[in-house]
Every structure is written in C-alpha cells, then in structure tokens.
Design brief:
5 strands; five-stranded mixed β-sheet; single chain
C-alpha cells in the first residue's frame, strides 16, 4: 500500500470515529441549549445575536436550522460539525504531504494534528467549535500554499475560510487578525526583497475580507459587549490559562504517573514548545527565509500576543479549555518542525506516545467537558417509557440535565411530559413523578422518593403513586 494511502485510511478511520460518536453520544447541555434557544430564533435574531449570547455560534446555529428542516434528531443537528471534521482531516492530510518528506515524518505530523481526542470531540457535537477548527485548518493550509506560490488565489481562499471560522465562533477573531499580521510579515521579509506591487495587491485581498468580516460580526459582537457576555476565560495569562488548560485537556483523565500526572508533564511540554519556537525562528533567520516553519511559529506568537492585548486593552479574558483549541494546530506544527530533522527513532518514539495516548482515550460514550450527560438520553427514554403517551408524567431534573431532557422531549414529541424543571437546588417537595440527578444529591429530595434506576453516578428517583399529594 502506498504511503499516501495509509494517511487516507487514517483520515477515514478518524472520520468514522467522529461519526460513531455522533450516533453514540447523548446530546449535551450546551448543544441542547443551542437547539432549543438559538436555533428556534428567527433568522434576523440569529445573525444579529439578539439578545446577545456567547453560545450563539452564528453559522453553526444557521446550519442547524437548515438541517433541522429534515428532522430534529441529534444526527442531523450534529451533521454540520461532522462535515467540518471531514474538512479538518482533508486539509490536515494535504498539509502533511506538503511539509513532511519522509514516512515517519508524515505519520508524526498527521498524528500530532489529528490524534487529539479532546479536539475530535467537537466534530461530533452541535457547537461552533468543530466548524471553526475545520475552516481554520483549511485557512492554514491555503496560507501555506500562498507562501509557497505567492499567488493571490490561495491567499483569497485562506482569508475566506478564516472569515467562515470567525462566523462559526467569534473567538477566532484573534486568529483572523494574527493571520493578517503574519501574512504581512511574510510579504515584507526579507525587507530588501520586497515586491511593493505584490504587497499592495495582497493587502487589497486582506482588506476586502476584513471589511466582509466586519460587516458580518459587528452587530453580534456589539450585542455580546452590551449584554456583558464575554465573561468566560482566565485572568492569569496565556501560559497559565490558555496553554495549561489546552495541555490538560489533551491529557484528559489519564493519570500515567498518579494524581500529579498533569503537573509533572506541563513543564516538559512548555520547555519543548519553547525550544520549538526558538529553533524555528532562529533557523528562519539563519536562512533569511520566512517559510512555513517561521510562518506557523510567528502566527502562534502573534495569536498569544493578540490575546494579551485583548485582555489588557479590552478586558476580555484569556482563552481556556474549548475556546483555546485554536492554538492547538499551531502548537503541534511548531513542535513538528522541531522534530523534522531528528533521527527516525525519536520521531517513532513521539509517534507511539501520541498514538497510544489517543487510543487510551478514544470512546463513543463520554464527552470530556460535559461528562455528566453520558446517561441523559438513556434516562429520558426510560422515564418516557413508563407511562402511555396519553397520560401525564411530571419530570424533574437538576439544572445541568434540563436542556438535554428538554431537547429529547421536543425532538421525540412527548407533549404528555410536564417539565423538565430548571432546578438550581434539588427541591424537597413531592411534585415530580420522576427526578433525574446525581446519586450524591438524592438525600436532598423528599424522603418519600425511592430509587427507580441507576445510571453510573446518576439515577432516576420515583415518587410512588400512593405517596403523591392531591393535585
């Protein structure tokens, strides 16, 4: 089998993994809220983000509205992000073929970009993160093609995909600005070889897409500022907030060296990243070339600097967890170029470590950020099956599960179910027939409730008919 075909096969397997998660995962809190709250809005309310909500990822919401025309089941509402996963894999494959020469190099580059269970999660969820990452990877690949050819066509496509990334998730605005800055560095360096005519034409393309993006996001961004929705994030800095949470989420729940695994691995990864950044920039300066290693590394630094300026000047917080995922492709590309000239055994060692870690984390049942939703779909199906559809069921739940239970009630057509409730505190009354919550919280319910069914660390509690209060 040709080496390229191995990468194609790995891409297909990664896509099938994401597809299996689309089918196997219960809907999650933020996904369900997106469908119930945002996708139900009129078109103009969506595109203007009225009222302003950070969870309204505009292009994602619009695509959910479109696919929901064919049915409101979880596969259709997640389909836009699954297709974006296909984009991410395709452009990762194309980029790997361009930047990696040897067999081990290609496998290593592909594994670094793709074998991240946390990142792949978002190609199976109805959120804007998967869409934005798919478009971002396309933008990066086409920016690389522009550096190689200096033709304006790939530059225009790179910027068009960057606009779509921002419209999918507004956290990508920092990437858009950093991309323009990095492209201008590529056009201006080395200074004695500047083609001012080409620089002007290229910046005409950049200006056009900047104006287009401003027209698309000005009103929804203003709504976020007006309604004080930009509260999610860290306050300590890019390294302690953004990079730290990104690496921690990459590691997930795997404790290879005990409970301190993450603390033990953070310093070596930071040192590796520092070496990669330093080496890539120094090699570029030595060769007097602003090539792809220098471009991707500079883009990473500009992205971090942009987040710093946003925090200092605008008060927006540092990206953390899922919002920090836009850093990941740039981080691993910088690290890849550090290993590009290394011995094959060293590449193989890193490849095995990355691959085995991914395999240890791969699953089709749990979402890392919304781990508590693993059994919510099963719990709803159980409750709904307890009574015929012409009889009323009063269903309650702790607030974490309310949007998802509400989604299943709506999408599967159960008007006989009253609820679910939005309880920030577990009630002590006897109103609900069934109540879904964490097992550790069952003591807060009225003592007349009894255990009906357990789902891992969660359970359904039932109020026996003879214990019900007269309505």
């Amino acid at each position: 089998m040709k080496k390229e075909n191995i990468l194609i096969l790995l891409s297909i397997l990664a896509f099938l993994y994401c597809a299996a998660r689309v089918v196997g995962l219960s809907m999650t809190h933020d996904e369900s809220a997106t469908v119930l709250e945002f996708a139900s809005r009129p078109f103009w309310k969506v595109v203007t983000n009225d009222p302003g909500r950070a969870n309204n990822h505009i292009l994602n919401t619009l695509l959910i509205q479109f696919f929901a025309l064919f049915g409101n089941n979880k596969i259709l509402v997640r389909l836009p992000n699954l297709l974006a996963g296909g984009l991410f894999l395709y452009f990762s494959y194309r980029l790997v073929l361009d930047i990696a020469a040897g067999w081990w190099e290609q496998l290593l580059a592909f594994a670094l970009l793709v074998f991240n269970a946390y990142l792949l999660e978002f190609f199976s969820l109805a959120r804007g993160y998967g869409l934005s990452l798919g478009f971002m990877m396309g933008s990066l690949y086409l920016a690389h093609r522009f550096l190689e050819s200096r033709r304006l066509r790939p530059l225009a496509w790179s910027m068009a995909l960057a606009v779509l990334a921002c419209y999918s998730n507004l956290t990508m605005l920092t990437y858009f600005v950093a991309l323009i800055a990095a492209l201008n560095l590529a056009l201006l360096l080395p200074f004695e070889q500047i083609n001012w005519k080409h620089w002007a034409r290229a910046n005409g393309v950049l200006l056009f897409f900047s104006i287009l993006l401003a027209a698309l996001v000005f009103t929804p961004l203003r709504a976020l500022l007006r309604d004080e929705e930009l509260y999610y994030g860290g306050t300590r800095g890019v390294l302690p907030n953004t990079f730290t949470t990104l690496i921690q989420n990459y590691l997930g729940w795997e404790n290879y060296f005990g409970d301190n695994t993450k603390d033990l691995l953070l310093p070596p990864v930071f040192i590796l990243l520092l070496l990669a950044v330093s080496r890539n920039l120094m090699e570029g300066a030595r060769r007097r070339q602003f090539d792809s290693p220098v471009f991707f590394t500079s883009l990473l630094l500009l992205l971090a600097f942009g987040n710093f300026l946003q925090y200092e000047l605008l008060g927006t917080r540092y990206l953390i967890h899922r919002t920090a995922l836009l850093y990941f492709p740039l981080m691993v590309l910088a690290i890849f170029f550090l290993f590009k000239g290394a011995a094959d055994w060293l590449k193989l060692a890193l490849l095995l470590a990355v691959s085995l870690h991914f395999l240890s984390r791969a699953n089709v049942k749990t979402v890392q950020e919304w781990w508590f939703e693993r059994f919510t779909e099963d719990a709803f199906e159980y409750i709904a099956a307890q009574q015929p559809r012409d009889s009323t069921i009063r269903m309650g739940s702790y607030w974490l599960f309310t949007p998802t239970l509400g989604y299943y009630k709506q999408s599967r057509g159960y008007p006989n179910i009253i609820g679910p409730s939005l309880d920030f505190e577990v009630p002590g009354t006897k109103y609900f027939d069934y109540y879904y919550l964490s097992t550790s919280d069952t003591g807060k319910l009225h003592p007349d409730y009894i255990l009906e069914k357990s789902f891992g660390d969660y359970c359904i509690m039932k109020l026996p008919p003879d214990k019900k209060e007269p309505q």
